[in-house]
C-alpha cells in the first residue's frame, strides 16, 4: 500500500498543504463537540449496563485523532487538538451564558435547558483537561510507534495509542469531575469500565480505521514519519 507514496518527515508534513486535511479536522471537532453536547447529559441502559450516552460516539474522535496523526503527522494533529480544545472552551462558555440568561415570561423550558446544558464547573473542567491531555498522549504514542514499527502493523498503533490516551483521559476526567461526589469505589469502577469500553470501541473500529487511512494516504500520496518532530504540545508550526 505504501510503495508508491512519498515519505515525509514531521517538518515537511507540517508545511505541506493537504487536500483532505481540513475535512478531517472539521469532522474531528464536530464529533468532539456533539458527543459532549448531545450525549454527555444522558444516561442510557443496554443489556443491564448503564453508561453515558456520549460514549457511543466520543471514541470516534479518538479514531479520527489516530487518522490525523497516521496520515498527516503529529504537528498537524496537534493543530486539531488545539482547535478542539478551543471549541470545547467556547461551547462551555456559550452554554453558561445561555443557561444564565433570564428566561422570557411564559417560556417553560428553563428547567429542561438547565438539566441538559447546565453542567457544573467541575465536569466542564474535567472534560476539557482530560481531552487535551488524552489526545496529546494518543497522538504522541501513535507517532512514536509508527517509527518503531517502520509503518507496519497499523492496528498495534491505533489500539496501543488508545490504551494510553484513554487511560490518561479517564484518570483525569472521573476524579476531577466526581471524586467527593461519588465514592472512591464508584469513581474507580466507572473509570476502568469506560476505559475498557473505549479501547474495545477502538478495536472494533479497526477495519474502518484501515479503510479511511488507506484511502487518505492514496489520495494525499504521502507517508509521514515523525522523525525530528518537536512533540511539545506548545511547539509552533515553524519549529516542529
Q: Could you characterize what this model shows?
A:
It is a single chain. With 240 residues, this protein is mainly alpha-helical. Helix content is 68%, strand content 7%. It contains 9 helices and 4 strands; from the N terminus they run βααββαααααααβ. The strands form 2 sheets. A two-stranded parallel ribbon has the order 1-4. A two-stranded antiparallel ribbon has the order 2-3. β2 and β3 form a beta hairpin. The longest helix has 28 residues, at 121-148. It is globular. The mean pLDDT is 88. It comes from Novosphingobium aquiterrae. The chain crosses the membrane at residues 20-40, 46-68, 80-101, 121-142, 163-183, 195-216. It is a multi-pass membrane protein.
Per DSSP, the total helix count is 9
Q: What is the string of SSEs from the N terminus onward?
A: EHHEEHHHHHHHE
What ranges have pLDDT less than 50 throughout 5 or more consecutive residues? none
Can you count the beta strands? 4
- What is the terminal-to-terminal distance? 27 Å
**Helix percent band:** 55-70%
Query: How does the major sheet shape up?
Result: 2 strands, parallel
Strand order of the largest sheet: 1-4
Strand proportion: 5-15%
> In terms of structural class, how would the helical and strand content be classed?
mainly alpha
The global form is globular
Q: What is the C-alpha radius of gyration, as a whole number of Å?
A: 19 Å
The overall average pLDDT, rounded, is: 88
Protein name: Probable queuosine precursor transporter
Keywords: Cell inner membrane, Cell membrane, Membrane, Transmembrane, Transmembrane helix, Transport
Pfam family, one: Vut_1
Membrane topology: Multi-pass membrane protein
Amino acid at each position: 500500500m505504501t510503495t508508491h507514496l512519498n515519505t515525509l518527515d514531521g517538518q515537511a508534513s507540517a508545511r505541506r498543504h493537504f487536500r483532505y486535511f481540513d475535512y478531517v479536522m472539521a469532522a474531528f471537532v464536530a464529533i468532539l463537540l456533539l458527543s459532549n453536547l448531545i450525549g454527555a447529559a444522558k444516561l442510557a441502559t443496554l443489556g443491564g449496563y448503564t453508561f453515558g450516552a456520549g460514549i457511543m460516539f466520543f471514541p470516534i474522535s479518538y479514531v479520527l485523532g489516530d487518522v490525523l496523526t497516521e496520515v498527516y503527522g503529529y504537528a498537524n494533529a496537534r493543530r486539531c487538538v488545539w482547535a478542539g480544545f478551543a471549541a470545547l472552551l467556547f461551547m462551555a462558555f456559550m452554554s453558561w451564558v445561555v443557561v444564565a440568561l433570564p428566561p422570557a415570561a411564559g417560556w417553560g423550558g428553563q428547567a429542561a435547558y438547565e438539566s441538559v446544558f447546565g453542567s457544573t464547573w467541575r465536569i466542564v473542567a474535567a472534560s476539557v483537561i482530560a481531552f487535551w491531555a488524552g489526545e496529546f498522549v494518543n497522538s504522541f504514542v501513535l507517532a512514536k510507534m509508527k517509527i518503531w514499527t517502520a509503518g507496519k502493523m497499523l492496528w498495534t498503533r491505533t489500539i496501543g495509542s488508545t490504551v494510553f490516551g484513554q487511560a490518561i483521559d479517564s484518570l483525569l476526567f472521573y476524579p476531577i469531575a466526581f471524586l467527593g461526589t461519588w465514592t472512591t469505589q464508584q469513581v474507580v469502577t466507572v473509570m476502568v469500565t469506560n476505559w475498557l469500553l473505549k479501547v474495545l470501541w477502538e478495536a472494533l473500529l479497526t477495519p474502518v480505521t484501515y479503510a479511511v487511512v488507506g484511502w487518505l494516504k492514496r489520495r494525499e500520496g504521502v507517508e509521514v514519519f515523525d522523525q525530528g518532530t518537536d512533540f511539545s504540545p506548545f511547539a509552533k508550526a515553524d519549529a516542529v
